[in-house]
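Tutorial handout. Part one gives the primary structure; part two gives the three-dimensional structure as tokens.
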Amino acid sequence: MAITTVKLLEHNGNKIKVKGLDVIDGTPVIDIKPYWPQYDKVENGKVPSWVNKLEF
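Part two.
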């Protein structure tokens, strides 16, 4: 199991296209989370406005 920060290139319905995912074709993806600067440091990382509205 691994955690990888990727760049979202596009989305269409329930499909996404990303850059930088460190897997082999056919590897299952268990979960997708938005980028949160407090947990990872990505140069010029962007956070969608809806992320700040999430409640835990």
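Part three, for discussion. The CA atoms of residues 10 and 17 lie 5 Å apart. Residues 1-56 form one domain.
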